[in-house]
Amino acid sequence: MVETRGEAPPPRANHSSAFLNNNLYIFGGWDGQKRLNDLYFLDILQMTWTEVRSYGINPSPRAGMTLSAVNGKLYLFGGSGPSASCYNDLQMYDVKLNMWTMASVCDPENIVKARAGHSTTVVDDKLYIIGGSCGSSYYKNFFVLDTDPAPDIKGSYL
Question: pTM, whole model, 2 decimals?
Answer without folding.
Answer: 0.90
